[in-house]
Design goal:
The structure holds two protein chains of two kinds.
Chain A: H1 3-20, H2 27-38, H3 46-63, H4 68-79, H5 83-108
Helix pairs in contact in A: 1-2, 1-3, 2-5, 3-5
Chain B: H1 6-18, H2 22-41, H3 45-48, E1 66-71, E2 78-83, E3 88-92, H4 95-122, H5 126-129, H6 134-143, H7 145-155, H8 158-177, H9 183-188, H10 197-212, H11 216-227, H12 229-235, E4 272-278, E5 289-297, E6 299-300, E7 305-310, E8 315-320, E9 327-332, E10 335-341, E11 347-351, E12 360-363, E13 366-369, E14 371-377, E15 385-392, E16 395-400, E17 403-409, H13 417-425, H14 430-439, E18 445-451, E19 456-461, E20 465-467, E21 476-477, E22 485-488, E23 496-498, E24 504-507, H15 529-540, H16 546-553, H17 559-571, H18 577-587, H19 599-621, H20 632-641, H21 659-678, H22 687-690, E25 692-697, E26 708-712, E27 727-728, E28 730-732, E29 735-738, E30 743-746, H23 764-768, E31 773-774, E32 782-790
Parallel strand pairs in B: 1-32, 3-7, 6-25, 11-21, 25-27
Antiparallel strand pairs in B: 2-3, 2-32, 4-5, 4-24, 5-28, 5-29, 7-8, 8-9, 9-10, 10-18, 11-17, 12-13, 14-15, 15-16, 16-17, 18-19, 19-23, 20-22, 25-26, 29-30, 30-31
Classes of the chains: A mainly alpha, B alpha+beta.
Chain lengths: 111, 791
């Protein structure tokens, strides 16, 4: 197992979660860095799950609250659709795109 | 649009993959796609953000069981115990600390409500919600409650200002230290700004406006122009033959109230209330008893916030307005008090004669400069707009329904209700209580009083203007000065009564004083039904118990039904089996508007249809299709005593219809309507299937998930337990029964504005079944404790 790919994955998860506390879109920045380390386009698909983990990590502080279910039901009713999977999906896609950018950038600017 | 043939497309992709710049091209495409996706989801991310989105409200739903906060500026420690209903009991050694804590708790439990309540009357709602609120903001900026609030604060005494300032410090301490603001702020994407004493006062002004400010003068102008004063007199008589005034027996003439003539005018009032007090000699416990249920808009969170404040000066409990540093209705160890709206006429509209450029106006044949105040309204997402507010000696100039007039309203002067209530909060006897009342001006209220010494009292209290001429129920000329206010009814001469012989006093928004009362009070009184029922129930028993008080407060006997239904049953000839069944239900009805009964559904649908059939044709012919219909009491009088009334005839037909014709037609139409809406099976026509109560959140029209589900409810506009309309949104906003050994209370909602808290709506289940919580000031079960430690 290539250690750089694991580090790339973990960077997306943890740095992505950290940067997302500043602004949600900064998940992409972490994903670009992660993707740059992953290097491989096929392996970069794992960034989709890393993005889900990153935002899942942020959400975990609320998930264990006894009121999370009620709040989630409320969010669903406001959004008009299952908001939690939608949020995770958005995180996954943003992370995937970011990782692809990272991988492609590495290839594009390889000397 | 033409697509490339498959072979050509394949060739293009191959060429791209072999292109030396392919990675840069793909990179560019990926960046663009990522940016586009981010842009597309960005409107939703404030809510779906895993860190700062709506899920963050899962935390801090309930207050910690034990918490200590060190606060700078306190004189001593403050202990706050919340009981199992979420009601705080605040214990402080200093009054200013007490009100600091109240401010903190109001903000902690009701911050968004407070914010909205200050923004509306200040004309600053557009800052939160954008252009949609501009019209409302422009209206309130023109009216100038915020200007009056500033003047009030400047003229308040130091003691009141200190308390208001300390209260603000408490609110702002919470705003500055809160980890999360209420969910409404996340939904609206905004944050609260600092609270000022002006915000507290302006909210008080708003309550005054809701209860005493209105545009009925315009409505009457319209009606008189359409029908003439005589017909309006027939439609809107105020002093009706069976009226029972709030203050009994002011003079010999009062004994002849059954012979009153119709002299004044009323139109329907949405807001009303009940209160009464029973003297020890009529009380089974031999203690005075006091009951009150103010009828206001029942929103979520509720308009009231219950609290118990204890310091060396105060030991007062009751309901407060979030945003205001005092108990509005409640009790202390010595006295109890409650309020109903007097409905006095405290607003007049003056038609001014302006110069062409409106910079001057005429008053008593002289020209005066119009005062111009520039008001800038900030609008979320838009450029600010500045309006010029014109003010004459009568007040700010408004435009409405195509008319321009200056508004003269008692609430636009500096008034000192907080000071009054703070004095009442700590009063220990009737004399001290009266001293507080002297300062209470707006809105005029019927204050009911009882104390541990066995006194009971009622006073229609507030600033009620004395006019040079006229009653100001329609627009008046401002230029002549003939209709100006020349003073206010002196405090000593306002309708009042202490310890009456009858052993009780009751008010339900009916006329405050008998016909021979020397001052003009107004023309907007509620139908007599609630007042009559309360008086009957209080009168009929020699000794009244605490349980009797509970029964009266939840009474649903429908007096107009008991009068109109027999006429209906005698008049109608059923046309089919369904009508026959409906008549049988009406014949067997006990006239209680219970949710499980079928007759009230039929009766109230019939009354609605009858009013439509009686008045719509004349109103349309007169060009005022949206004019206010008369009250049910007027309809009742017409059915009984005015069989020849012109309103029984349908003016759009060639023949002349009679009272019998219109009753028959209305009954048939009502049954048809019920068949359409509730089905042919009459057993499904239970009142509760059509008559609902709605508890809507302040922004529930936009976020319906914040609302409480609608539920079946008893009562009607005419019952003591009031619930007007088919979907009622106004009603007993607070119920209290006090006899100085036991007290119970309830309100629809809960203490905390967080929709996920158990205290968001925990009172509703009890309230809708007319049940109460024991109102304990000691010996309560503590749910959580918060201690402010002096730094």
């Amino acid at each position: 197992m290539d250690i750089k790919k694991i580090i790339g994955f973990l960077i997306i998860v943890f740095l992505g979660a950290l940067l997302s506390t500043l602004h949600w879109s900064l998940l992409v920045v972490a994903a670009v860095i992660g993707g740059y380390l992953i290097e491989d386009t096929k392996k970069a698909v794992s960034a989709f799950f890393a993005g889900i983990f990153a935002w899942g990590l942020l959400l975990s502080r609320y998930v264990f609250s006894p009121h999370f279910g009620a709040v989630n039901t409320f969010v669903n009713s406001v959004a008009g659709l299952p908001a939690l999977p939608l949020m995770l999906l958005i995180g996954g896609i943003l992370s995937l795109l970011g990782a692809f950018i990272g991988v492609t950038a590495k290839k594009a600017f390889k000397k | 649009m033409q697509f490339l043939p498959f072979q050509k497309r394949k060739l293009f992709i191959v060429q791209l993959l072999n292109h030396p710049m392919k990675h840069k091209i793909i990179l560019a495409v990926l960046v663009v796609v990522t940016l586009l996706l981010s842009y597309a989801v960005s409107p939703f991310m404030p809510y779906l953000n895993p860190h700062t989105g709506l899920w963050k409200h899962s935390l801090s739903v309930e207050h910690p069981q034990e918490q200590e906060i060190t606060v700078e500026g306190l004189f001593d420690d403050v202990r706050i115990e919340r009981d199992t209903h979420g009601i705080p009991h605040i214990y402080a050694q200093y009054d200013l600390d007490l009100f600091f804590a109240l401010g903190y708790l109001h903000a902690q439990d009701r911050l968004f409500q407070m914010d909205l309540n200050r923004r509306l009357p200040s004309g600053r709602l557009s800052e939160l919600v954008g252009e949609d609120a501009y019209e409302s903001d422009a209206f309130y900026r023109t009216l100038g409650m915020h200007r009056a609030a500033e003047e009030t604060y400047e003229k308040s005494n130091q003691w009141t200002r200190d308390i208001a300032d300390s209260y603000c410090k408490g609110v702002n301490y919470y705003i500055h230290t809160a980890k999360t603001y209420p969910i409404e702020y996340t939904l609206l994407q905004c944050t609260p700004e600092e609270w000022t004493p002006i915000d507290s006062i302006v909210f008080g002004k708003m309550m005054g406006w809701e209860l005493s400010g209105n545009f009925y003068d315009l409505e009457f102008q319209k009606l008189e122009e359409a029908f003439g004063p005589d017909v309006v007199e027939e439609l809107f008589p105020s002093q009706r033959s069976l009226e029972v005034p709030i203050i009994p027996g002011l003079s010999e003439a009062c004994r002849q109230i059954l012979h009153w003539s119709n002299e004044r005018i009323t139109i329907p009032l949405e807001l009303g209330s009940n209160n009464w007090a029973v003297a020890p000699e009529k009380s089974a416990s031999e203690r005075a008893m006091l009951c009150n249920d103010p009828h206001l808009a029942t929103t979520l969170p509720p308009i009231w916030y219950q609290a118990h404040l204890v310091s060396p000066t105060y030991n007062v409990a009751g309901v407060t307005f979030p945003g205001a540093p005092c108990v509005v209705i409640g009790r202390n160890q010595y006295i109890a008090w409650g309020l109903t709206n007097t409905g006095a006429d405290v607003i007049d509209f003056y038609v001014e004669t302006f110069s062409d450029d409106e910079t001057q106006y005429v008053y008593q044949e002289q020209w005066y400069d119009t005062e111009i105040v520039k008001e800038t309204i900030y609008i979320k997402g838009e450029s600010p707009k500045t309006i010029d507010v014109k003010i004459t000696r009568h007040g700010p100039v408004l435009e409405r329904d195509g008319r321009t007039f200056a508004v003269c309203w008692t609430g636009l002067e500096p008034t000192f209700e907080f000071e009054a209530l703070l004095m009442i909060n700590k009063a220990t006897n009737y004399k001290q209580y009266q001293e507080g009342l002297k300062l209470f001006s707006v809105p005029a209220q019927n204050f009911v009083y009882a104390d541990i010494h066995g006194n009971i009292a009622m006073r229609s209290n507030g600033k009620i203007p004395i006019r040079k001429k006229g009653t100001g129920r329609i627009l008046v000329d401002g230029a002549s000065g003939d209709y100006d206010w020349v003073g206010y009814i002196p405090f000593e001469e306002l309708p009042h009564m202490l310890n009456p012989d009858q052993g009780y006093l009751a008010s339900a928004n009916q006329v405050p004083a008998p016909r021979d009362y020397p001052y003009y009070l107004g023309f907007l009184w509620a139908d007599r039904y609630r007042a009559e029922r309360i008086n009957n129930l209080l009168k009929e028993k020699e000794k009244l118990t605490f349980e009797d008080m509970i029964r009266i407060q939840s009474d649903t006997y429908d007096i107009p039904a008991s009068i109109i239904t027999p006429i209906l049953v005698q008049t109608v000839h059923p046309q089919n089996e369904l009508e026959k069944q409906a008549l049988t239900y009406l014949k067997n009805w006990d006239y209680y508007d219970e949710r499980t009964s079928i007759a009230p559904t039929i009766f109230h649908t019939f009354v609605d249809t009858l009013k439509d059939n009686m008045f719509t044709d004349e109103y349309e012919q007169a060009g005022i299709p949206d004019g206010s219909f008369p009250t049910t009491e007027t309809v009742e009088n017409m059915l009984i005593a005015c069989e020849e009334s012109q309103f029984f005839d349908n003016v759009s037909t060639s023949q002349k219809e009679t009272r019998e014709d219109i009753i028959q037609k209305s009954f048939t139409e009502a049954i048809h309507e019920l068949k359409e809406s509730l089905g042919e099976d009459i057993t499904q026509w239970e009142y509760g299937n059509k008559h609902k109560y709605s508890l809507e959140h302040m922004i529930g029209a936009v976020v319906s998930a914040l609302n409480y589900p609608q539920f079946s409810y008893d009562g009607s506009s005419y019952t003591v337990d009031v619930a007007g309309g088919w979907i009622s949104k106004h009603g007993p906003s607070w119920r209290q029964i006090i006899d100085f050994e036991r007290a119970v209370c309830i309100y629809p909602g809960g203490q905390i504005d967080n929709p996920f808290s158990k205290h968001y709506t925990d009172f509703v289940k009890l309230w809708k079944e007319s049940q109460y919580i024991e109102w304990l000031l000691e010996g309560y079960e503590t749910e959580s404790v918060l201690i402010f430690r002096r730094a």
